[in-house]
Design a protein that fits this description.
88 residues, mainly alpha, CNOT9, ARM-like
């Protein structure tokens, strides 16, 4: 699905996909699995143009990547925290 999204971008679908992965990363076992199977396109800048105008989805993606990297940061789902790390 993510590979198809790279060929035919949809900001709305990307938002839902990132949110699903983020929710999965809340579960420790699922998070461990995501370390090996999270699509590389979500780790690199493939979707940066889609995310440029959507700070919420950018924040979700940043949190997802931190969760998968092993840096669990509870409480950031409810609000801020990553705005200073986002590149415009």
């Amino acid at each position: 699905m993510v590979a198809a999204l790279a060929e035919q971008p949809s900001s709305r679908l990307l938002k839902h996909i990132i949110r699903c992965y983020l929710r999965l990363s809340d579960n420790p076992r699922a998070c461990d699995a995501l370390r090996s199977c999270l699509p590389d396109m979500l780790r690199d800048a493939t979707f940066s143009s889609c995310l440029r105008e959507d700070p919420t989805t950018r924040r979700w993606l940043q949190q997802l990547l931190h969760n998968v990297a092993g840096n669990r940061l509870p409480g950031l789902q409810a609000g801020g925290g990553f705005d200073h790390m986002l590149v415009n």
